Protein backbone atom coordinates (compact mmCIF):
# COMPACT_ATOMS: atom_id res chain seq x y z
CA UNK A 1 0.00 0.00 0.00
CA UNK A 2 1.28 3.45 -0.85
CA UNK A 3 -0.01 7.00 -0.86
CA UNK A 4 0.61 9.70 -3.44
CA UNK A 5 -0.57 13.28 -3.56
CA UNK A 6 -2.52 14.36 -6.64
CA UNK A 7 0.51 16.32 -7.76
CA UNK A 8 2.82 13.30 -7.40
CA UNK A 9 0.32 11.16 -9.29
CA UNK A 10 0.06 13.70 -12.13
CA UNK A 11 3.85 14.07 -12.37
CA UNK A 12 4.69 10.34 -12.26
CA UNK A 13 1.82 8.09 -13.33
CA UNK A 14 4.34 5.38 -14.23
CA UNK A 15 5.42 5.15 -10.61
CA UNK A 16 1.79 4.94 -9.49
CA UNK A 17 1.04 2.15 -11.96
CA UNK A 18 4.15 0.23 -10.88
CA UNK A 19 3.22 0.55 -7.19
CA UNK A 20 -0.36 -0.57 -7.93
CA UNK A 21 1.00 -3.95 -9.03
CA UNK A 22 1.89 -4.72 -5.40
CA UNK A 23 -1.18 -3.21 -3.72
CA UNK A 24 -3.60 -0.31 -3.73
CA UNK A 25 -2.26 3.20 -4.23
CA UNK A 26 -4.15 5.90 -2.34
CA UNK A 27 -4.23 9.29 -4.04
CA UNK A 28 -4.90 12.30 -1.86
CA UNK A 29 -6.29 15.77 -2.49
CA UNK A 30 -5.32 18.32 0.14
CA UNK A 31 -4.27 15.58 2.53
CA UNK A 32 -7.49 13.54 2.28
CA UNK A 33 -7.83 10.27 0.34
CA UNK A 34 -9.80 10.87 -2.85
CA UNK A 35 -9.01 7.95 -5.19
CA UNK A 36 -7.56 4.45 -5.15
CA UNK A 37 -5.55 2.95 -8.00
CA UNK A 38 -5.66 -0.85 -8.33
CA UNK A 39 -4.21 -3.34 -10.77
CA UNK A 40 -6.81 -4.74 -13.15
CA UNK A 41 -6.40 -8.22 -11.65
CA UNK A 42 -7.11 -6.89 -8.16
CA UNK A 43 -10.14 -4.97 -9.43
CA UNK A 44 -11.52 -8.08 -11.16
CA UNK A 45 -11.08 -10.16 -7.99
CA UNK A 46 -12.99 -7.55 -5.99
CA UNK A 47 -15.88 -7.24 -8.44
CA UNK A 48 -16.43 -10.84 -9.53
CA UNK A 49 -19.83 -12.17 -8.55
CA UNK A 50 -19.45 -14.80 -5.87
CA UNK A 51 -21.96 -17.63 -5.61
CA UNK A 52 -24.23 -17.49 -2.59
CA UNK A 53 -24.59 -20.47 -0.25
CA UNK A 54 -28.12 -20.94 -1.60
CA UNK A 55 -26.86 -21.12 -5.17
CA UNK A 56 -24.16 -23.59 -4.19
CA UNK A 57 -26.62 -25.82 -2.33
CA UNK A 58 -29.09 -25.81 -5.23
CA UNK A 59 -26.54 -27.11 -7.74
CA UNK A 60 -27.15 -30.52 -9.30
CA UNK A 61 -25.26 -33.36 -7.63
CA UNK A 62 -24.83 -31.78 -4.20
CA UNK A 63 -27.13 -34.35 -2.65
CA UNK A 64 -24.29 -36.88 -3.08
CA UNK A 65 -21.80 -34.81 -1.06
CA UNK A 66 -21.24 -35.96 2.51
CA UNK A 67 -20.99 -33.15 5.03
CA UNK A 68 -20.46 -33.37 8.77
CA UNK A 69 -20.42 -30.00 10.52
CA UNK A 70 -17.62 -29.47 13.00
CA UNK A 71 -17.95 -28.32 16.60
CA UNK A 72 -16.99 -24.91 17.91
CA UNK A 73 -14.24 -25.35 20.49
CA UNK A 74 -13.48 -21.69 21.23
CA UNK A 75 -15.67 -20.58 24.17
CA UNK A 76 -15.85 -16.98 22.89
CA UNK A 77 -16.95 -18.16 19.44
CA UNK A 78 -19.44 -20.61 20.96
CA UNK A 79 -21.05 -17.76 22.92
CA UNK A 80 -21.94 -16.09 19.63
CA UNK A 81 -24.11 -19.06 18.65
Automatic annotation (TrEMBL):
Leader sequence segment: none
Alphabetized InterPro entries for the sequence: Antitoxin_Phd/YefM, YefM-like_sf
Stretch list, region Disordered: 1-22
Assigned protein family: Belongs to the phD/YefM antitoxin family.
Protein name: Antitoxin
Job description of the protein: Antitoxin component of a type II toxin-antitoxin (TA) system.
Compositional bias per record (Polar residues), positions renumbered to this chain: 1-13
NCBIfam families named in the record: phd_fam
Source species of the chain: Alkalimarinus sediminis
Pfam families in UniProt: PhdYeFM_antitox (PF02604)
Amino acid sequence: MSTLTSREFNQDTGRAKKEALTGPVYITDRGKPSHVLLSYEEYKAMTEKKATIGELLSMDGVEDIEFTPGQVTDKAAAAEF
